[in-house]
């Protein structure tokens, strides 16, 4: 008896906790006008109207007994999918890692996309319609990604997709998008394989080979280095890809990679790797990776007496880099799409608008890429004769010299963005412009 | 030769420093397993909470700017508050989630632990709590080198970190082997029903175990974030791996065995660092799990555990 | 006393033998065809994708039930075996289609075709489908082999050690697969590389991508129902009683002449086989497989299904697989709070029904019409 009481008490306490969380969830979600996906508002409305009438009788017909088939059929009937697009609305889908280990990347990209949507709506929308973005969480998993992308395309009926930072998930999403003929633009997946999935898949960022080449060229020709070590994250395809490409380009330019060391994303200690690099006498360390790790790496390098500069890619770009790395990161170089201190009109406006919307938070490169991906898509939508997949894809492919935050974006025949990269140096906690490197011919 | 010695001592110092933190975390796993016979998968999330509570405290006290000098007692104060807060959270978790399942199959408790872990991770990640981006832990302990051994720096952070860990472990050792409460804990872990017949308040002892384990985890989280100042977001894979390694340390030392957990923690730390330095950095997680499997195959009860004979 | 049976008995014995063994196969085929040709067009792509995920989770949950539920052992290696099976099968179909057809797109019949297949004049089966089936079986066998290697030594131990060893195994598999060589995509290079070497080119940190698309509702539901049949027969046979006896009392089982280690290893190997098949199936649906995603957290997802369904209840595992696949999708409207609420729901479910949905019984043994029988027949849930 006592046991039952304890159980009921606990269950009630947990349920009330859930209720608190739920209510707490509604508050900020509403006031932020859709930090959460469109599903929040749409849920209630669509419960009745959600176009599931077709399958309901189906499940009643054959799945009544012990057949497990009843379960899936019931699912969409009850699923509070986002409301289908109203007549004066255009829906676009964004799939991103909003929770899990890589939540930062998805959340920041989503902020950039939402800023773009707000801007385009404030300017009157597209073809007289407002744009609404539905964001669904991939939890950082490929298997969830395919489910979510299928859902965006077939139940939410989005006309285009934006998605994923991680190349592995962009590839999974691209397979689905291509199969359904829905155009997809990935904001920041740099692996070459992503856009090979078909004629509907585009990107607005660099490719790994280009960025690897940029840093190799910069190290070899501007810094005149001949011995460089690399330290890469073996769990991140972004990092392994950049590492391979840098190594190849740097060797081709006549330099040697004296040490190639790996770590696993999530590691906090890099002393073993850095000690090896120190003993091999490297003149710089190429650290392709995200700012989440680079800060710790820089601090430990200085602690171990490694004073050579670190080199990196666009994954470094974040105000957190200087915050975590502090003095240790000063003097290091990284390549990026743009410089946040750039005086170009697009950059200044983007940074100030982003800051005023998010309490002074400085946008990182993922936010800028999300913003640019959305803007390229909207630009194509305006030019496209219809919002059908084929027309829209053609319009995106025709993008030429689009003035984005991350520079002039032109989509080439392989559906990749062709643009130059800037190299920045960290000086006193600020990223300062050093040089621009154009794509090789 | 000199460089080789330097690397050796650096590896040794780091291995010991991190190993002692693994040991602190491992104690929580081993104590809970000793009494309730289930793997508390939410334990690593208490470590995370310890680090993040310490960060929030330090920031609100105004030590967040890199150059702000914190007085020596600030770190101690923050450590104690974080330990108390995590102890309270540990108590609440036990009371709300695990206690109703006393007597239920162990697998259920395990899944509840997974539920608690998911809950803590995803709640911590919410924007109004800790958020999903990494932060810099204000350096409450200056990173000054105390002495140099063959070129390897022994810094204050390492000494204070390992020292605090050892101090806490000595305290725990005293608590468990020299106090009445400790005797009750051992009695419950030896045989719960007999202990309760002897007048031991089993529920109170279990709750107390969770409080102690969580407080130690918080201390580990705090010390870890002192050493590695870029603290990862609550759901980062790095924390899970930290927890797993500590758990492996507990198993290698003989799960349920307090001293075994301490030695196991240091062993795992040394193995990981020496493996990374002298074999290959690619497989540093593999060494740990390979050791686990080897130990279990040849000494199933762990290095210091006593083999139990199943009675009919 | 007036039975007709004797008259039939001198008829062909095989006549009675055949339907009893083929009926489940027929049912599996029938359901799979129904799902593919009726459910999929009617319910739409998203519901079909969920149905597909459910079937994969059914295979996983039921396979784990064989270890955790039947023999009472505790394995945390499901994801590891999925990874082993998935990568092995992916290597076979990907490199195999280069070797056999010279392109990464092997021919596929109507059963492996995506979307509404009615309009396409495709043959029923093509050689590509056979390669796919063979790859899935191969993946299962490799996983079973891995299961044997892991299980044989660790199943001699008692307690949670199997869980801990399988956890370690899974993490090692993850690291090794993540550090594998890049996938080859050049046809000439593939043709010139011997098979053993090809098996080291598994995609590394990006995961094995560009796997041919084969898995449809037909294949998964066929596999799911066959898994169910195997599990049910295993549970009901006298052979299967040996498994259950280990769960109930290992010492007593040994005293009754059950070689517990042998039976535990058998259950473990069979379970690993199906986990490997599930990994192979999902790899050919997502068209990529990534070891980074198949850490021990993925194993937990499956363990949760088994426990929620009730230890050893096959139908319970099926139901739990369905519920836990759909639940996260239903909670999507909560956005950031979704996983928080899911976690709380999990805790509450465990507290309110610690014995799982149906305890150790099957669905049809619960409820008003079988109350009396269940009371005497099956032991109460959560007895251990």
CATH topology of the largest domain in chain A: Rossmann fold
| The CATH architecture of chain C | Orthogonal Bundle
Overall outline of chain C: globular
What is the total domain count of chain C?
1
The ordered H/E elements of chain C are: HHHHHHHHHHHHHHH
Keywords:
heterotrimer, A: 441 residues, alpha/beta, Rossmann fold, 2 domains, seven-stranded mixed β-sheet, five-stranded parallel β-sheet, 15 helices, 15 strands, 47% helix, C: 384 residues, mainly alpha, ABC transporter involved in vitamin B12 uptake, BtuC, 0% strand, disordered N terminus, disordered C terminus
Architecture blueprint of SSEs:
The complex is a heterotrimer of chains A (441), B (312) and C (384).
Chain A: H1 2-31, H2 39-49, H3 55-62, H4 70-78, E1 89-96, H5 103-122, E2 130-137, H6 142-154, E3 160-163, H7 167-180, E4 184-186, E5 201-203, H8 208-222, E6 227-233, H9 237-252, E7 256-263, H10 271-279, E8 284-286, H11 291-303, E9 310-312, H12 319-325, E10 333-336, H13 345-357, H14 365-383, H15 389-397, E11 402-404, E12 407-411, E13 417-418, E14 421-427, E15 430-437
Parallel strand pairs in A: 1-2, 1-3, 3-4, 4-5, 6-7, 6-8, 8-9, 9-10
Antiparallel strand pairs in A: 10-14, 11-12, 12-13, 14-15
Helix pairs in contact in A: 3-4, 5-14, 6-7, 8-9, 11-12, 14-15
Chain B: H1 2-36, H2 43-60, H3 72-98, H4 106-124, E1 135-136, E2 145-149, E3 152-155, H5 156-178, H6 180-190, H7 192-197, H8 202-227, E4 230-231, H9 237-252, H10 258-278, H11 284-298
Antiparallel strand pairs in B: 1-4, 2-3
Helix pairs in contact in B: 1-5, 1-6, 1-8, 1-9, 1-10, 2-3, 2-4, 2-8, 2-9, 3-8, 5-6, 5-8, 6-8, 9-10, 9-11, 10-11
Chain C: H1 5-9, H2 13-70, H3 78-101, H4 127-154, H5 161-178, H6 187-191, H7 195-198, H8 217-236, H9 238-248, H10 250-255, H11 260-286, H12 296-309, H13 314-330, H14 338-352, H15 371-377
Task: Please explain how this structure is put together.
The complex is a heterotrimer of chains A (441), B (312) and C (384). Chain A has 2 domains: 85-206 and 344-419, Response regulator (Rossmann fold), CATH 3.40.50; 208-336, Rossmann fold, CATH 3.40.50.2300. The radius of gyration of chain A is 24 Å and the shape is globular. Chain A is of the alpha/beta class and 441 residues long. A 7-stranded mixed beta sheet of chain A has the order 7-6-8-9-10-14-15, with helices on both faces. In chain A, strands 2-1-3-4-5 form a 5-stranded parallel beta sheet, with helices on both faces. In chain A, strands 11-12-13 form a 3-stranded antiparallel beta sheet, covered by helices on one side. Chain A has 15 helices and 15 strands. Chain B is mostly helical and 312 residues long. Chain B has a two-stranded antiparallel ribbon. Chain B has a two-stranded antiparallel ribbon with strand order 2-3. The longest helix of chain B is centred in the N-terminal third of the chain and has 35 residues, at 2-36. Chain B is globular and about 60 Å long. Chain C has one domain: Orthogonal Bundle (ABC transporter involved in vitamin B12 uptake, BtuC). In chain C, α2 packs across α11 (260-286), α2 crosses α12 and α8 (217-236) runs antiparallel to α11. The longest helix of chain C is centred in the first third of the chain and has 58 residues, at 13-70. The radius of gyration of chain C is 22 Å and the shape is globular. Residues 1-9 and 371-384 of chain C have low confidence and may be disordered. Chains in contact: A-B, A-C, B-C. The interface between A and B is large, with 48 and 50 residues.
């Amino acid at each position: 008896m006592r046991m039952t009481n304890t159980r009921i008490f606990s269950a009630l306490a947990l349920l009330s906790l859930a209720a608190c969380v739920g209510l707490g969830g509604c508050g900020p979600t509403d006031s932020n006008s859709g930090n959460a996906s469109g599903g929040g508002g749409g849920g209630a409305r669509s419960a009745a109207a959600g176009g599931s009438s077709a399958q309901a009788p189906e499940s009643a017909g054959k799945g009544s007994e012990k057949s497990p088939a009843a379960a899936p059929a019931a699912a969409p009937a009850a699923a509070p999918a986002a409301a289908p697009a109203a007549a004066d609305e255009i829906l676009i889908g964004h799939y991103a890692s909003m929770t899990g280990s890589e939540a930062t990347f998805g959340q920041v990209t989503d902020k950039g996309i939402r800023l773009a949507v707000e801007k385009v709506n404030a300017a009157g929308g597209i073809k007289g319609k407002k744009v609404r973005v539905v964001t669904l969480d991939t939890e950082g998993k490929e298997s969830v990604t395919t489910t979510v992308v299928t859902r965006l395309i077939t139940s939410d009926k989005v006309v285009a997709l934006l998605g994923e930072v991680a190349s592995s998930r962009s590839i999974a999403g691209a397979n689905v998008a291509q199969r359904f003929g829905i155009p997809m633009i990935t904001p920041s997946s740099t692996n070459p394989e992503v856009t090979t999935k078909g004629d509907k898949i585009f990107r607005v960022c660099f490719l790994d080979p280009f960025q690897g080449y940029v840093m190799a060229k910069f190290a070899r020709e501007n810094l005149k280095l001949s011995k460089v070590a690399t330290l890469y994250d073996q769990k991140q395809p972004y990092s392994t890809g950049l590492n391979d490409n840098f190594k190849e380009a740097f060797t081709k330019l006549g330099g040697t990679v004296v040490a190639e060391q790996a770590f696993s994303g999530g590691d906090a200690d890099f002393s073993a790797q850095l000690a090896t690099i120190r003993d091999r006498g490297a003149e710089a360390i190429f650290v392709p990776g995200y700012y989440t790790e680079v800060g710790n790496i820089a601090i430990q390098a200085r602690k171990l007496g490694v004073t050579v500069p670190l080199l990196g890619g666009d994954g470094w770009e974040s105000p957190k880099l200087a915050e975590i790395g502090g003095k240790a990161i000063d003097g290091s170089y990284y390549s990026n799409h743009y410089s946040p201190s750039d005086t170009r009109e697009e950059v200044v406006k983007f940074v100030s608008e982003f800051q005023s919307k998010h309490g002074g938070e400085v946008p990182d490169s993922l936010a800028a890429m999300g913003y640019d991906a959305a803007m390229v898509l909207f630009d194509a939508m305006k030019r496209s004769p219809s919002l059908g997949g084929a027309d829209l894809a053609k319009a995106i492919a025709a993008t030429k010299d689009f003035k984005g935050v991350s520079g002039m974006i032109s989509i080439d025949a392989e559906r990749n963005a062709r643009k130059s990269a800037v190299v920045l140096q960290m000086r006193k906690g600020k990223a300062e412009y050093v040089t621009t490197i154009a794509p090789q011919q | 030769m000199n460089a080789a010695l330097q690397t050796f001592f650096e590896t040794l110092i780091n291995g010991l420093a991190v190993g002692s933190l693994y040991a602190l975390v491992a104690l929580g796993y081993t104590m809970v397993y000793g009494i309730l016979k289930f793997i508390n998968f939410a334990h690593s999330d208490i470590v995370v909470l310890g680090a993040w509570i310490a960060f929030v405290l330090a920031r609100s006290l105004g030590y967040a700017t890199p150059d702000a000098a914190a007085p020596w007692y600030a770190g101690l104060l923050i450590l104690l508050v974080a330990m108390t807060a995590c102890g309270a959270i540990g108590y609440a978790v036990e009371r709300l989630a695990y206690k109703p399942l006393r007597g239920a199959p162990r697998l259920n408790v395990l899944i509840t632990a997974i539920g608690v872990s998911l809950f803590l991770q995803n709640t911590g990640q919410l924007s109004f709590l800790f958020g999903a981006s990494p932060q810099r832990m204000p350096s409450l302990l200056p990173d000054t080198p105390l002495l140099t051994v063959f070129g390897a720096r022994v810094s204050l952070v390492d000494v204070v970190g390992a020292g605090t860990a050892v101090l806490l472990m000595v305290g725990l050792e005293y608590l468990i082997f020299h106090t009445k409460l400790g005797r009750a804990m051992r009695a419950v872990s030896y045989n719960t029903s007999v202990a309760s017949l002897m007048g031991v308040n089993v529920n109170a002892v279990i709750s107390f175990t969770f409080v102690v384990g969580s407080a130690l985890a918080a201390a580990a989280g705090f010390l870890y974030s002192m050493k590695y100042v870029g603290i990862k977001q609550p759901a980062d894979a790095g924390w899970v791996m930290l927890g797993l390694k500590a758990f492996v340390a507990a198993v290698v030392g003989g799960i349920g065995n307090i001293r075994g957990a301490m030695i196991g923690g240091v062993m795992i730390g040394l193995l990981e660092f020496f493996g990374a330095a002298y074999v290959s950095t690619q497989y540093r997680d593999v060494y740990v799990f390979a050791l686990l499997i080897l130990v279990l195959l040849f000494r199933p009860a762990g290095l210091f555990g006593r083999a139990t004979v199943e009675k009919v | 006393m007036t039975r007709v049976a004797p008259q039939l008995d001198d008829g062909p014995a095989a006549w009675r033998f055949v339907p009893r063994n083929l009926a489940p196969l027929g049912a599996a085929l029938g359901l799979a065809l129904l799902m593919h040709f009726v459910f999929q067009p009617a319910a739409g792509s998203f519901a079909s994708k969920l149905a597909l995920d459910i079937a994969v989770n059914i295979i996983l949950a039921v396979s784990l039930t064989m270890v955790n539920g039947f023999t009472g052992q505790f394995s945390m290696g499901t994801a590891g075996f999925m990874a082993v099976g998935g990568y092995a099968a992916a290597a076979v179909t990907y490199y195999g289609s280069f070797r056999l057809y010279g392109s990464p797109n092997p021919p596929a019949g109507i059963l492996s075709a995506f979307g509404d297949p009615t309009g396409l004049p495709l043959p029923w089966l093509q050689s590509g489908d056979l390669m796919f089936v063979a790859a899935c079986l191969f993946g299962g066998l490799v996983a079973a082999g891995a299961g044997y290697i892991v299980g044989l030594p660790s199943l001699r131990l008692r307690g949670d050690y199997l869980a801990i060893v399988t956890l370690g195994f899974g993490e090692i598999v993850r690291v090794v697969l993540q550090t594998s060589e890049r996938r080859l995509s050049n046809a000439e290079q593939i043709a010139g590389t011997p098979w053993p070497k090809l098996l080291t080119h598994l995609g590394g940190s990006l995961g094995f991508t560009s796997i041919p698309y084969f898995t449809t509702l037909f294949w998964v539901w066929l596999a799911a129902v066959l898994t169910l049949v195997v599990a049910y027969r295993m549970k009901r046979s006298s052979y299967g009683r040996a498994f259950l006896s280990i769960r109930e009392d290992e010492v007593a089982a040994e005293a009754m002449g059950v070689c517990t280690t042998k039976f535990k290893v058998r259950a473990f190997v069979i379970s690993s086989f199906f986990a490997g098949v599930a990994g192979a199936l999902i790899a050919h649906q997502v068209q990529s497989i990534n070891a980074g995603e198949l850490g021990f957290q993925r194993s937990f997802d499956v363990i949760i299904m088994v426990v929620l369904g009730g230890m050893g209840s096959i139908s319970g595992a099926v139901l739990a697989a369905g519920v836990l696949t759909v639940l996260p999708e239903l909670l999507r409207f909560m956005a950031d709070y979704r996983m928080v609420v899911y976690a709380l729901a999990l805790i509450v479910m465990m507290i309110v029904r610690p014995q799982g949905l149906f305890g150790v019984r099957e669905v049809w043994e619960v409820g008003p019409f079988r109350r009396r029988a269940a009371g005497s027949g099956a032991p109460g849930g959560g007895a251990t």
